[in-house]
Amino acid sequence: MAESTRLVDLVQADIDRFLDERESLLSAISPELDPLIDFSRDLLRGGKRFRALFCYWGWQATGGHATGFDPMAESAAESDLASIVKAAGALEIFHAAALVHDDIMDNSDTRRGMPAAHKRFQAMHATGGWIGSDATFGQSAALLLGDLLLGWSDELFDAGIRSLPSQSAGLAARREFNRMRTEVTAGQYLDILDERAWQSYPEPELLGRAHRVIIYKSAKYSIEAPLVIGAALAGATAEQIAVLREFGLPLGIAYQLRDDLLGVFGDPAITGKPAGDDLREGKRTVLIALARKNLPSNSRSLLDELLGDEDLDDQQVRMLQASIRNCGAVDQVERIIDHNVRLALAAMNDSPISAAARDQLEQLADTVTRRIA
Question: From CA 28, how far away is CA 243, in angstroms rounded?
Answer without folding.
Answer: 47
